[in-house]
Write a structure and sequence with these properties.
The complex is a heterodimer of chains A (about 140) and B (about 200). Chain A has 5 helices and 4 strands. By secondary structure, chain A is of the alpha/beta class. In chain A, α1 crosses α4. The radius of gyration of chain B is 15 Å and the shape is globular. The model of chain B has no long low-confidence stretch (mean pLDDT about 95). The interface of A and B includes residues 45, 49, 51, 81 and 84 of A.
Chain lengths: ~140, ~200
Amino acid sequence: MTAADRRVGIVLVSHSREVAESVARLAAGLSGGGDTAPVAAAGGTPDGGLGTSSDLVSAAAASVDRGAGVAVLVDLGSAVLTVKALLAEGDELPEATRLVDAPFVEGAVAAVVTASAGADLDAVVAAASEAYAYRKE
Amino acid sequence: MLDADFFRRWMTIAAAVIDREADRLTELDSPIGDADHGSNMQRGFAVVRASLDKEPPDTPGAVLMLAGRQLISTVGGASGPLYGTLLRRAGKALGDAAEVSGADLARALRTGVDAVAALGGAAPGDKTMLDALVPAVDAFGEGDFTAARAAAEHGAEATIPLLARKGRASYLGERSIGHQDPGATSSALLFGALAEAAGAGE
């Protein structure tokens, strides 16, 4: 397996399917196109409503796990609590899965760009968290 | 002593009570939340009841762990991981004993409530489910089901004048004052169901 096959996976968990999918597209689009790290959106409930589905989160994490770890970015409320609860149980998510404390959109872009460049999980998490430091005024 | 039948009865009664009170929970969640607490809890507990019927676990701990797991995966709102964590941690704390005492349950519920506080980062007084859960567990002692129910109900009512500091209601600031917290209300329903399962009188 080459290094490119073992990139960190990114999961984007939002209350809304549209938000999660759009941010995933945005982040992949801004990471230079071509061969990006695996990104999966887990937004809304299975029936398309607003909320968080632990099944969708688990499936998304499994789908991007290449053995290099999975970084999970979340928006708010039940998205945060659901991922924390899943991590606390220990057996629902791939082994090296981390909840990233980061702004959702900016953090997702930073995470996908660094993961696509082949950075390890610590570096991906750090890059996403550093997005908080970017001041807009 | 309390066996697996007792815990299944608790969850079955809880499902019926939540079903009956779902509209009221959603109504409470309308002015300060996103008006889905009743329907979310109703969906979660219906699945809990169905899965306990389908494959009844044979220990108290296993009943609560299965119920908690179903709530995390089916509720869809913040109450899913919160109540799911409460029941799973309590279930885990009960271990694989076939029967547990009131004192065992008291310790397990305390462990579960502590886990809820850690997960949500809330404290009593923040206008959350903890405002019913903490006094209920304090009052439960070594198995006083009636006192726990009364404390939970009182705690839920006492959220009315509080300012919300966690969750969506906290965005409303002062406008959250004057409304009873839906999460504290459903917590009181769960302690009501627990008392009913134990046969405690009104």
